[in-house]
Structures are given as C-alpha cells and as structure tokens.
Amino acid sequence: MAIAKAERLMNLALCLLGTRRPLSKRELRTSIEAYLEAGTDDSFNRMFERDKDDLRELGLVIETVENLDGDTGYLARRDSNRLPPITLDAEEAAALGLAAKVWQQARLAGAASGALQKLRAAGMPETEDAYEVHSALEPRIPVHEAAFEPLMLACRDRRPVTFDYRKSNSARPEQRQVEPWTLECWRGHWYLAGWDRERGAERVFRLSRITGKVRSRAGAFTAEVPDVVTVRETVESWAGETATRTARIRLRAGAGYPLRSRAMTLRERGDGWDELEIPYGHGLDAWLVEFGPDVVVEEPADLRADVVDRLRAVAKD
C-alpha cells in the first residue's frame, strides 16, 4: 500500500509540474491510473484531497486557479518549486543532522526530519553520523509540557498570552499576562522568558509550573524585545546558572548525581552522607527542593530558610 501511494503521489506531482495550464480534477482523474480505479466520485475526491495535502506537506507549492467558466484547476509552477543551490559543506551538513536529532522526542520531530530530507534531495552532502557510530550518547531535548507548543508559536508570532502559573512556594496558581520572548531549555527543564505586564518587568517561567491552557491575546507587544543573548542570560540567571556565592550541603550517599557534577568540593562523611560545596545563585533553593529528603542545607542560613519555606508550602498541598 505504501508503494502504491508513493507512486500515486509521484504521478500527481509530475502532472502538476508538467502542465502549462491549471488542470481540473476531472483531467487529473483521467490522467492518473490510480484515480481511474477509484470506485466513486466521493472516493476519488477524498483520495485527491489527501494526496494534495500530502504533497504540500512535503513542500510542493500547489496553486489553485479558477478559470473563466468557474471551474477550479491546479498546477505547480517550476519556478515556485525550485530550491536555490545548496552550498553547505560537510561540517554544516553534520550540524544540521545533529540539530534534527535533538528534536526526536518533541512534536517538531516530523518537521525537522522532513526539512533534512528536502535539503538532502536538493544536494546537501551526506555525512557520517558520528553519534551513532562512535558513541552511545544521543542529543535530545525532552518536551513533555503541554504549554510548549502554544508558547513556541506565540514567541514566533509575537502574540501576548495569558496562563495560570503556580510558583514553587505557592499553594494556588495565579494568572499571568505575558509578552513571550523566547523558550530556553536548561538542565532538562523548559523556561519561558518574557515581559510580565502586571509586574511591569521581565520574568522567567518554568513550563512545568504552568497549569491549564495557554491562551493567546490580541494586540501588539508593549515592551521592547531584547536580543537573544540578553534573554538567554536572563533565563540562566533566574534558573540559577549565574552563581555569586557558594553553599555547603549534605547529600545522601548514592543520590543527587546532578548536584555532584557541579560540586566544587566533595567530602565523604562516613555516616551515609557526603558534604558538598556547590555554586549558589538565584534559583538554587528551587532546585534543591527537587531532591527532597536526600539534601540538607548547612549554610548559608538564608538558603536553608528558603528551602524550608518551599518544603512547607509543598507539604500543605
């Protein structure tokens, strides 16, 4: 069945690319054998509409033209379906292949794979996949939050949004009105950076704390969108990447490997706990809470108090 459909799509594409005038459905049906075998007009119409959508999904630009008699015709102009010369070298092609692999777990997987196939068909050089041949590691960006796709589209289209957001130390979510700038993935979690209209300041929101649906709002942005580097630095700062001090914690032996990888010093206590010195920046309290009873903050006192407050808020739920 897959071979038959591929042949039917190829024949339809050749008909649309080879004609100098729009072809009607009737003309296309009599020109393609698979359409002649369709039992009824309804069956043919459904098949043709699916095939037309599939070709457009593959990147073929199909024009719909109405003639003087009111009949609808279809054609695909060659100048509209010709890619410019592909001048990527082997290293650039390898980078694109690696980028496509990153999205294998996300809803963008189909778009990334399709774009890569079109570039290869247009002459992009094939490269050896170093990650499959030489390594057991594979780059991926997990996307499990339902808010990811609507926020990605809102960032692209520069559309304000509203959503309910629950802070880590809050029992109930609050509605936020945000002008979304960009999405950043950090330590396996997605963050939205944008302008909070009610607070009149830039804010960063963790997608896993967004509850309910993300709703788009009409109107233009009221605040200037900073450049990408500034937004990325903001995300890293709010998420805890920028460290200004150090903290000393106790970590249960055999637990908390992400914390161990960031430790500046590590000492085995011999009582089932290890003592670590780690960088302390904005957001560290929220990260430590995720490790639950496996982490105890020794100092500084303000970080210990913040972690205790967050744990108490979680216990109330």
Layout of secondary structure:
Elements: H1 2-18, E1 23-24, H2 25-31, H3 33-36, H4 41-57, E2 63-66, E3 72-75, H5 90-102, H6 109-121, H7 130-134, H8 148-157, E4 161-165, E5 174-186, E6 189-196, E7 201-206, E8 210-216, H9 228-239, E9 243-252, H10 257-262, E10 265-268, E11 273-281, H11 284-289, E12 295-299, H12 301-316
Antiparallel strand pairs: 1-3, 2-3, 4-5, 4-8, 5-6, 6-7, 9-11, 9-12, 10-11
Helix pairs in contact: 1-4, 5-6
Helix content: 25-40%
**Beta-strand content bin:** 15-25%
Content-based structural category: alpha+beta
Low-confidence stretches: 130-137
Shape: elongated
Record the strand order, biggest sheet. 7-6-5-4-8
Q: List the secondary-structure elements in sequence, H or E.
A: HEHHHEEHHHHEEEEEHEHEEHEH
Distance between the termini: 54 Å
- Rg: 27 Å
What is the overall number of helices?
Answer: 12
Query: Residue-averaged pLDDT, rounded?
Result: 80
How many beta strands in the DSSP annotation? Answer: 12
What kind of sheet is the major sheet? 5 strands, antiparallel
